[in-house]
Amino acid sequence: MEVSIVYIDDVSDELRKYESKFRTDPRAVGRFTIKTFNSPKSPADYDHIIGMAPELLLVDFNLDIPDENGQVIGISGVTLSTELRQKFHEIPIVLFTRKSVFNLQDYTKIRGTLSSIDEIVYKQEVFKTDSTILDGLYKLAIGYRTLRNQENRSWNSLLKLLGASKSDSELLEQSNPPLVRRQRWSAASVASWIREIVLEFPGILYDALHAATFLGVSKDVFLSESVQNAFAPAKYTGIFAPSDGRWWKSKLQTVAYSMMNKKEKESLLRHGFPAAWERSKGISIDRAKCVFSGESPADWVCHILKKPVMIKYSLSYNADDRPTVMDEARVSFEAIRTSNDFDERLVDPLGRELIADIRRMPKPEG
Amino acid sequence: MWPEEYATSLTFMVGPKYMGSYLTPGSKEMLLERVRMLRAQRKGSSCWQVSIPRESPFTFRENSDRLQADVTGIIEGEGDGVKEVRTLLRVWSLDAALCYRANIDAEQVRSKFDEMRRRVMVRFHFDCREKCFTRPEPIYHLQVGGVALENENCWFPKQLEIPRFHFPPMDIILLCELVLVNLFPKNSRNLREKPEWKKLVMKSQNAFQRSYLDTFHDYVRDTTNTILGNLIS
Description:
The structure holds 2 protein chains of 2 kinds. Chain A is built from 18 helices and 11 strands. Chain A is an alpha/beta fold. Chain A has a 5-stranded parallel sheet, with helices on both faces. Chain B has one domain. In chain B, strands 1, 2, 3, 4, 5, 6 and 7 form a 7-stranded antiparallel sheet that branches. Chains A and B meet through strand 10 and helix 17 of A and helix 6 and helix 7 of B.
């Protein structure tokens, strides 16, 4: 299943360079076909791009160099993306740029306002030996293709593409999907909801760290072959499934419960599951350990340090605008004390009153 | 200013990160309306009041045993001080099997339950002593029962407005903690572990219970009178 790329840039050398790379890199061959276009200047140019039948648009950010006729497009790649989105509702648009001209950190702060862009990719990173960006671009395009090919655009058809159970469907409905029941959805808005909300924020789906902490074990234990095999039914295999894996929280619980005896079920999952695993396998396993106190099993994940933490050693952190159905973002006392990324302004007023004490308090012994 | 601080605490308490998911629709809005009234009162006078009428109680959602609690009451103060706290915690049952015993209870109890779909099973008054009291009672006390409204479908005879246990004052936030611990012990564990929640509860402890408990502490050490003797005098 090859994906047809149209790459738009204002520098002919760049167009040639990346066209060549896409045509020769073994990771791209057989997955992508590429056509190039020097930035559009007239309505006819847009028609020409439509005629190229793209399935993935790569758009350069800096478009201020005149073409061979001396014409300049006069807008940035971000603005061009908005223009393109109006004409391509069903095609992923990726800003294809350089670190020196586009700061990704600034982008994350204004992501909501750049809704026409699906992804931002640094050109220099794409063809590096250990890069997985080509995989990501391919999955993005294939995901869009799946959405595009859906004739039935109902809420239920979307749930089917996600592989959601009934209880998960109810939660998904509370996560601000870009449609109400029985209305039709569009590929771009649904893709953005799945990738930037459902897969991004922990709550309905968990990444490996959140899944491990939910089960009370360390991330290494969770990613071990035997545990992965046991929890294979909980793995998310729906549309846009990321390569680092996501697991349905509800199914993690169901699978874990199926291994637990009556006594283990009476305790909290993060206590009961590790005990059940140790009992059935006859081995001891590492628990999720609090980054601040060393206590285990920890019951949350620090938003900044990306480590397990006990709720009692964390504060609510308003780092993003995730739907309330998702797990609350919390920051560990450890991050408050040690991380330069900690921003006091993002803590609730109640929590802010505690910060001075948190910085002074002796570290508990785990 | 304490009343302003209390208004802030109540606003946070009903937010989605704290009590939001434990409340029935409308309870949050009702309390926020009361908070706005509290803030408005402060502008004209040093006296202030937060009241939750029994007609529109602050209601928790039902728990897994089909029990539902609600809180009503009145809290009065002047300046930064709390003058009186009178709150009522009612526990309703929504389960017919718990509300009515066939062949024992009157048929009217059953028909009323069928009509209302719930019944008050137990009521707790966290009261303070009347200004003109006729019987000995602690300044702050707990009384089980009391005068029920018609729709509560329960009856506690007036003669049973005793005993009155000495008990510290309980405001809305302290009662929320009590309800969480008793009606939602497992589900509310994460919330009760949060430092911000503890801070919220501790603020209420300081404002409503500290002075009472300090006095209580003195009475424990009093060698001339009993604790209850001191509290009713």
